[in-house]
Each structure stands twice: as structure tokens, then as C-alpha cells.
Specification:
The protein has 286 residues and is an all-alpha fold. The chain folds into 2 domains: 69 residues, Orthogonal Bundle (Helix Hairpins), CATH 1.10.287; 215 residues, Cytochrome c oxidase, subunit III, four-helix bundle (Four Helix Bundle (Hemerythrin (Met), subunit A), Up-down Bundle), CATH 1.20.120.80. It is 71% helix and 0% strand. The longest helix is centred in the first third of the chain and has 40 residues. Keywords: Membrane, Translocase, Transmembrane, Transmembrane helix. It is found in: Cell membrane; Membrane.
């Protein structure tokens, strides 16, 4: 706003409602894990979270369209998005850290190497290899095979890299006020995102039915699905965000110099792409 004023949003009910919905969802998740009967409660909580998010973002869009935000608010949004992506980096760093810990430390210890090689006394016949096809505990069955990284995983890698390129072109088109180019390249990005999700589903089907890779297939199966599954969820979220951006573009929102909502979605999508490259290298290839 003019005059160096700072916009203070009106009192909002969404933080409280969002917290309540999230609490219901987590209670339902706990009930489902412990008692096996919390699916309905968890689903209601999830619907509540999604509803609050949609209505809250709607209010933010309306405030932006009314010209209520100034340069200070823009900086606040950028800092908030930056911290959000940082939290996502730490989220995936935890899972990558677990993968590296297992491969670099835990497995060699069980094989008698390193400072804690005494752990080899637990399973004296165990031989450390990765991917771990034969877990040390005979009650746990490992996968029958591992996936070939140069087939579907490579295709998905090329798709995500291409989607980052198309999204960058769309962003450049918006900065030049070329809304047609922005729209078309954004549609291409969405199409690539949908194809990625479909191929990921096919890959999961093959992993379970042909390769015996499941969450119960030892530490390899657990790390495989935790890393690729959470990444797939982030891709779905990213596709949803970009779909909302497309609707806003079609409605005439954003300008050449006033489009942080679009820019933030680009930040998120590029982050998802970088994470996948790490997954491709350390989950599939090495």
C-alpha cells in the first residue's frame, strides 16, 4: 500500500480451524495404527485440513486482488516460502540420512567392520551388501530383485527435468506479460507432472508384483517406499498447486512484476525435481 503503511490481516478463524482439523486427522491416524479402526476419523480430519487450506488460500488471493499487499508483505511471503522449503529440505534430509546411515555404518557393523563390528555376533553369517537382498534376520524376506534404474526411473527423471524447463519458460513468459506462452507451457508442465505420477504408479505395481519390493521386504523395501512415496506425494501436491496457478492465469490474475504466487509454485516444483535427482542417484543407481 502507499505511504509506507503495513497491511495487517483481519482476525482469522482459519488457524484455529486448521489446527483442530489437523488434530482430528492425527487422532484418527493414531487410532488406525493402534486399533485399526480410525480410518473414518482420519479421513474426516484430512477433508477438514484440505477445506481449511482451500478457503484460507482463497482469502489470501482475494486480499491480493484487492491490492491490500505492499512490498513488505511480498518480502514476508518470500521469507515464509523460503522457510517452508527449508523445512521440506530437512524433512527429506532425515530420510536420506537414514539411508546413508544404514549403508555406510549399520550394514558394515553387522558384517564385523568398524568400531561397532561386535554387532556381527548377532548374525555371524551375515554379509553386508547393498541393495540388501537377504536381511540378516531369517524371518524377514528381502526383495527378489531390484528395479533397473535405466528403465522407468530414468524415464521419470527425464520427465521431471523437462517439466522444470517448461515451467521456467512459462515463468519467463509471465514476466514478459506473454500470458499465452505462460498458459501453454504451464499446461505442458502439468501434463508432464501427470505422466510422472502415472509412471510412478506403474513402477510401484511392478515393484510389488514382479520384484517383491514391499514395505516388509527388509530395510531396502522400507527405505525405497518411504523416500519415493513421500516424493510422489510432493509431486501430487505440486501438480495441484500448478493446476491452481493455471486457473488463475486463465482468470487474468498476475502481472509481469506482481506474481509471487506463481513464483512460489515454481520454487516448490524445482525443489521437488532436485529431490528426485537425489533419489534417482542414491535409491536406484548407487
Amino acid at each position: 500500500m502507499s505511504g509506507g503503511s503495513y497491511y495487517v490481516p483481519a482476525t482469522s478463524k482459519w488457524p484455529v480451524l486448521g489446527s483442530l482439523a489437523l488434530g482430528v486427522m492425527m487422532i484418527g491416524a493414531g487410532m488406525a495404527l493402534v486399533h485399526g479402526n480410525g480410518t473414518i476419523v482420519m479421513s474426516l480430519g484430512l477433508i477438514g485440513v484440505l477445506t481449511v487450506m482451500a478457503l484460507w488460500f482463497r482469502d489470501v488471493v482475494m486480499e491480493s486482488r484487492q491490492g491490500l499487499y505492499d512490498a513488505q508483505m511480498d518480502r514476508s511471503f518470500r521469507q515464509g516460502m523460503g522457510w517452508f522449503i527449508f523445512s521440506e529440505v530437512m524433512f527429506f534430509a532425515a530420510f536420506f540420512g537414514a539411508l546413508f546411515y544404514i549403508r555406510v555404518f549399520a550394514l558394515p557393523w553387522l558384517d564385523g567392520e568398524g568400531a561397532k563390528g561386535v554387532a556381527a555376533l548377532l548374525w555371524p553369517d551375515f554379509s553386508a551388501t547393498w541393495p540388501l537382498m537377504s536381511p540378516p534376520d531369517p524371518s524377514v524376506s528381502g526383495p527378489r530383485e531390484v528395479m533397473n534404474p535405466w528403465q522407468l526411473p530414468l524415464v521419470n527423471t527425464l520427465i521431471l527435468v523437462a517439466s522444470s524447463i517448461t515451467l521456467t519458460i512459462a515463468h519467463e513468459g509471465l514476466k514478459e506479460s506473454n500470458r499465452t506462452a505462460c498458459r501453454n507451457w504451464l499446461i505442458a508442465t502439468l501434463a508432464l507432472g501427470f505422466v510422472f505420477v502415472i509412471i510412478q504408479g506403474v513402477e510401484y505395481y511392478q515393484a510389488v508384483t514382479h520384484y517383491g519390493i514391499t514395505l516388509q521386504a527388509g530395510i531396502y523395501g522400507a527405505t525405497f517406499f518411504m523416500l519415493t512415496g513421500f516424493h510422489g506425494l510432493h509431486v501430487i501436491i505440486g501438480v495441484t498447486i500448478l493446476a491452481v496457478m493455471l486457473v488463475r492465469i486463465l482468470r487474468g490474475h498476475f502481472g509481469g512484476h506482481d506474481h509471487f504466487g506463481f513464483e512460489a509454485s515454481c520454487w516448490y516444483w524445482h525443489f521437488v525435481d532436485v529431490v528426485w535427482i537425489g533419489l534417482f542417484l542414491f535409491v536406484y543407481v548407487f
